[in-house]
Known about the structure:
Distance between the termini: 7 Å
Strand content: 5-15%
Number of domains: 1
Structural class: alpha/beta
Helix content: 40-55%
CATH architecture: 3-Layer(aba) Sandwich
Radius of gyration: 15 Å
CATH superfamily: P-loop containing nucleotide triphosphate hydrolases
CATH class: Alpha Beta
Largest sheet: 5 strands, parallel
Shape: globular
CATH topology: Rossmann fold
Number of helices: 7
Amino acid sequence: MxxxxxxxxxxxxxxxxxxxxxxxxxxLGWQLIDANPSLERYVGRSLNEILGNQGEEAFHRCEAEIIxxxxxxxxxxxxLEEAVITTEQNRKLLSSEYVVYLKVSTPTQIxxxxxxxIPLLPIADEKAFLDKLHHERDSLYEEVATITVETKSIxxxxxxxxxxxxK
Length: 167
């Protein structure tokens, strides 16, 4: 495999995607794109407004437009939001790209998210909610992943990815 021109980072909340994407972009000398805030800037409304006014379908259409936009860019590490892989269109767009799936266990997620709330959703039973998301999404992340990295530390995870890029 030749070295990719861009890298997309996916995974569950609490996996450490932002920190990993940031470290990867710095190491490669590439631009870091966080598609979560980019989405808000891209459509000119907050996520709450998007979901409240036009629903989930419109949200996923925007995600597809953002992915398509960054597929045309070089030397970028793009951090995608957690639900991006739930639509077939987004998975198809990502299928020919270099995608890092940062895999995390539910207990690790809970530990990393202590003291905070899951964005946009008030959750009574975090473990049950996160387990449900793993059940629904893990295979979809695997489907689009070029490489799956079992999250350990930023340094170890970065080393795994850099080694894979050298192939």
